[in-house]
């Protein structure tokens, strides 16, 4: 087999680019992890979660094609986020009591028309509003839900300004509907959501800016995410 120096050079360049993407974005994995693990029990294996996130990062680096126009972090985010959440679901840091409450919420949710609100869920389940809000926070660590894809779409559409003609019209329509839905959120929720996605701040950083506790910011973000999903579902059904 003949040695092709040009092909060897291209292969080496690809390998160097891949390794650079991985090394430069290890802090990004930790940043995503810090957003996902606020208020988790102390026994949760954060090292294991970080390792899962790094696997997601490596997979993203292996399949990333800069010619398609997306920024690497925009491309990598759903893969890192998904890998961490999948690992969280395996360990299920949610109590049996919480799982029972989530079952009640799920049953009530399926009987209600969009947009469902936490207040409606409380009325139909007999749970307090605080219990409903705690369940919404816990639900991100359990089985996949439809809004998870919307969450990654939201992140991508706000973080990536690169023009991609092949699906630009679809992305613009999603952004238009999302923007309209976001404007209908309460001010505190809207502010936390935009700081989390557009400024890429952690919950602790948002709390520092706004003068809120991390747990309160986490609750606001969970409420905003749920209500945004419901408003979006109503507009697109």
Keywords for this entry:
12 helices; mainly alpha; Rna Polymerase Sigma Factor, Chain: A; 237 residues
What does this protein look like?
The protein is mainly alpha-helical. It has a domain of 93 residues: Rna Polymerase Sigma Factor, Chain: A (Orthogonal Bundle). It contains 12 helices and no strands. The chain is globular.
Task: Specify the number of helices.
Answer: 12
The total count of strands amounts to: 0
Question: Helices and strands: which structural class?
Answer: mainly alpha
The helix/strand series, from N terminus to C terminus, equals HHHHHHHHHHHH
The largest sheet is: none
The share of residues in helices is over 70%
Name the average pLDDT. 78
Overall form: globular
CATH class descriptor of one domain: Mainly Alpha
CATH architecture term of one domain: Orthogonal Bundle
CATH superfamily of one domain: RNA polymerase sigma factor, region 2, helix turn helix motif
How much of the sequence is in beta strands? under 5%
